[in-house]
Design a protein that fits this description.
Elements: H1 13-23, E1 30-31, H2 48-60, H3 73-84, E2 94-100, H4 101-115, E3 120-125, H5 129-138, E4 141-146, H6 156-165, E5 170-175, H7 188-201, E6 204-209, H8 218-231, E7 235-240, E8 252-258, H9 264-279, H10 286-295, H11 298-325, E9 327-328, E10 331-332, E11 343-345, H12 350-360, E12 362-363, E13 369-371, H13 380-390
Parallel strand pairs: 1-12, 3-4, 3-5, 5-6, 6-7
Antiparallel strand pairs: 2-8, 7-8, 9-10, 11-13
Helix pairs in contact: 2-10, 2-11, 3-10, 4-5, 4-9, 6-7, 7-8
The structure holds (2S)-2-hydroxybutanedioic acid.
(2S)-2-hydroxybutanedioic acid (LMR) is lined by residues 14, 34-35, 128, 130, 180.
């Protein structure tokens, strides 16, 4: 039979963890798995700004007829000042299109790079596991380098070697901020060095920005990427609103191209549109439309930014508490206080991750990645005690 020719694939490990956690009856279980923001009460509520925008959308939308493969360009354009600053098109050199979530944007960026004959992508590891999965699915080669040093800082030499050594059929993929899974971002000086290296080598940068606003603020988290874009002729940027607008399941993303000259965008997007049409035809509209409504209304924008501030402050306070705790067993928690965003990596083995899950009801990715937002004042003492007991 035809279906017998398929071999079974393991479920995505991170998504499988959601099910495992849900099936665990222990009341004091702790979910540090998939990357969603949680309040001190463990909830992932819909932003009030999104609720208000959705209400306005319901009241005013008069058609759900098709848009094109580019989606809602009002949404795509309204985001641009947040990514690219006061000259958001950089003199007409940047334009974008909507995608189904950040994953759709990364997929489109890599597929378009492949169409432009990029065969190999350099990437700091560990990275978001789906980066490698998308590359493999496209039949592109992954050239890994170590993203982090043992002391919890970014490995500048590793990324510079990748940029300087990349050939014409290669690109380098960077995280804009709040590195997933390590939380280790490049410093401003390091971004300067990266920008110089990209400019001098002519290597093509692909930037994944999935967590803007969760590190130090919307402007602050874009600064490194803007430093880079100011120096290079071309780049792709994949963007997600899943986290900073809490739109996870509504799949809200965008893909931007920066070309050397404004005239270069037309051909790039003719290809990007064709790829999107063949893959998903057009992106889902609802979530992007809600973001557009927020960003065109100063009061709603204020409300959204205040909600984002609250999220960021909570994650910062969890990081401060971990850093203040100092150690758990052999693990030094102090670098976590200097890192950004939802994630951190703990130097624990797969076996220790399994023990934490089975004996203590603490769920994290097998890589040792934890979701900082899964920790609260209430569960932090239990987490640190369990880690100290396991990571001796
Ligand atoms: C994560 O890394 O947990 C998130 O980006 C969710 C996902 O799609 O993997």
């Amino acid at each position: 039979m035809m279906l017998d020719r398929l071999s079974h694939q393991a479920p995505d490990a991170l998504l499988a963890l959601i099910r495992l956690y849900a099936a665990d009856p222990r009341e004091d279980k702790i979910d540090l798995g998939v990357g969603v923001y949680r309040t001190e009460e463990g909830a992932t509520p819909v932003f009030a700004a999104i609720k208000a925008a959705e209400q306005r959308l319901v009241d005013t939308q008069d058609s759900k007829s098709y848009l094109g493969p580019e989606g809602d360009m009002g949404f795509v354009n309204a985001l641009m000042p947040y990514l690219f600053g006061s000259d958001p098109t950089m003199g007409g050199r940047i334009s974008g299109m909507q995608t189904p979530g950040g994953t759709g944007a990364v997929r489109l960026a890599l597929a378009l790079a492949q169409k432009a004959r990029v065969k190999r992508v350099h990437m700091g590891v560990p990275s978001w596991p789906n980066h490698a999965q998308i590359l493999a699915d496209l039949g592109m080669e992954l050239a890994p380098f170590n993203h982090a040093n043992a002391d919890g800082t970014a490995n500048l030499d590793g990324v510079l070697a990748a940029i300087n050594g990349a050939g014409a059929d290669e690109a380098v993929l960077l995280h804009a901020c709040c590195h997933n899974p390590s939380g280790i971002d490049y410093t401003a000086d390091q971004w300067d060095a990266l920008a110089e290296a990209f400019a001098a080598s002519g290597t093509f940068p692909i930037i994944d920005s999935a967590y803007q606003g969760l590190g130090h603020g919307m402007e602050e988290d874009a600064a490194g990427m803007r430093t880079l874009l100011a120096k290079v002729p071309e780049a792709f940027i994949a963007y997600s609103c899943d986290k900073n607008f809490g739109q996870y399941r509504d799949r809200v993303g965008a893909f931007y191209v920066m070309a050397k000259e404004p005239g270069g965008l037309d051909t790039a997007f003719s290809n990007a549109n064709a790829l999107a049409r063949a893959a998903w035809s057009m992106p889902p509209d609802h979530g992007g439309a809600a973001v557009r409504i927020i960003l065109r209304d100063p009061d709603m924008t204020k409300l959204w930014l205040a909600e984002l501030d609250t999220m960021r402050a909570r994650m910062r306070s969890v990081r401060d508490a971990l850093a203040t705790a100092g150690r758990a067993g052999r693990i030094d928690l102090t670098p976590l206080g200097r890192q950004n965003g939802l994630f951190a990596m703990l130097p624990v083995s797969k076996e220790e991750v399994a023990t934490l899950r089975e004996e203590h009801g603490i769920y994290m990715a097998a890589s040792g990645r934890i979701n900082i937002a899964g920790l609260t004042n209430a569960n932090l003492p239990k987490f640190i005690a369990a880690l100290a007991a396991v990571a001796v």
